[in-house]
Design a protein that fits this description.
It is built from 13 helices and no strands. The relative contact order is 0.12. Helices cover 73% and strands 0% of the residues. The chain has one domain: Ribonucleotide Reductase, subunit A (Orthogonal Bundle). α9 packs parallel to α11. The chain is globular and about 60 Å long. By secondary structure, it is an all-alpha fold. Bound molecules: fe (ii) ion (2 copies).
């Protein structure tokens, strides 16, 4: 492409300033300027995410089916509901990313991270699809899992909560006013703190509870990687929030904080109702009260990250999550070996050609 053609292309329609570096992250436009880079932190996060690449094919579900067969009906109900939630959860997050986040976060290095996140969300969708196909052999039952967002009240309530927040800014083409920017911030905070940071973290806790009882190691193994991805997605979103706060501190007024607290309280209620449904049959070692404490603990962590005072003062009641941290480290090193071996195979093939 000649320089003139490129200039004409990028200048066409939206004016010559379309690719220019804006003064602030939320200023409308499609900035294309990577040098000088305004937000190197986002680029670093993108590069760190690339290093954490995994594939669904590496997850070994080998012993899970035998575990399912020996579980109590109440435990199987828990797993069935979890799988039904996972069936659509990451697709919802991916939709918000494309429809709302990518549109308004106006820095190419941040959009690179979001592109990577979108890939990871697709990977999570593939992981849970594989899980569903493995755990639920019956086709009609699989179909019901995907229909859970409509038919199972405790899952529908969570999906409706997400959809309401997607819709809340879908009609916003540009963020010109402070009110519009606050609306965007609420959407961003909702998906990081309430959906990835509470709905997903809540779901992961059940998986690690089951693993602490020696069950479903395939699911737990894949969950380790999804957990790490989701932690990174939250960290990126909170970094975007911190950047906006540094650039436009006036957006972070009492009204915004009140809205964030109300949103978190509603998310806890949704998730607590999901817990009541999951644990309806009574699962030994896991109480609705403990789940609620864990959710309150997570909510406090999110508030603290946002620079807001904690609200619930709850401690983490789940000792088995400490084990998760240890296993995560082991898992990480196992993965490095596996990734390295993939690289070695490539080199061997290259050498063979000489
Ligand atoms: Fe995800
Ligand atoms: Fe995510």
């Amino acid at each position: 492409m000649s320089g003139e053609v490129a200039t004409a292309m990028f200048a066409g329609g939206s004016g010559p300033s379309a690719s220019a570096r804006p003064a602030r992250l939320l200023d409308p436009g499609m900035c294309l300027t990577l040098r000088p880079m305004a937000y190197p932190r986002f680029f670093e996060m993108y590069r760190a995410a690339i290093k954490n690449t995994w594939t669904v094919e590496e997850v070994d579900f080998g012993t899970d089916l035998a575990d399912l067969a020996k579980m109590t009906p109440a435990e199987r109900h828990l797993v069935q509901r979890l799988v039904a939630f996972f069936a659509t959860g990451d697709s919802i997050v991916a939709n918000n990313l494309v429809l709302n986040l990518y549109r308004h976060v106006n820095a190419p290095e941040a959009r690179m991270y979001l592109s990577r996140q979108l890939y990871e969300e697709a990977l999570h969708v593939q992981f849970y699809l594989t899980l569903l196909d493995t755990y639920v052999p019956d086709h009609a039952e699989r179909q019901r899992a995907f229909a859970a967002v409509e038919n199972i009240p405790s899952i529908k309530q969570k999906a409706d909560f997400c959809q309401r927040w997607i819709d809340s800014i879908c009609g916003l083409e540009r963020l010109d006013t402070a009110a519009q920017r606050r609306q965007f911030l609420l959407n961003l905070i909702c998906f990081a703190a309430c959906i990835e940071g509470l709905f997903f973290f809540g779901a992961f806790a059940y998986v690690y509870f089951l693993r602490s009882k020696g069950l479903l190691h395939g699911l737990a193994g894949g969950t380790n990687w999804v957990f790490r991805d989701e932690s990174a997605h939250m960290a990126f979103a909170f970094e975007v929030v911190a950047t906006i706060r540094a650039e436009e501190p006036e957006l972070f007024d009492d009204g915004l904080e009140r809205d964030v607290r109300a949103m978190l309280a509603e998310a806890i209620e949704c998730e607590a109702q999901f817990a009541a449904d999951l644990l309806a049959g009574g699962v030994a070692g896991l109480s609705i009260g403990d789940v609620r404490s864990y959710l309150a603990y997570c909510a406090d962590q999110r508030l603290a990250t946002l620079g807001m005072a904690k609200q619930y003062g709850a401690a983490n009641p789940f000792g088995f999550l400490a084990l998760q941290d240890v296993q995560e480290v082991t898992n990480f090193f196992e993965r490095r070996v596996s990734a390295y071996q993939v690289g070695v195979e490539g080199e061997v093939t290259l050498d063979a050609a000489f």
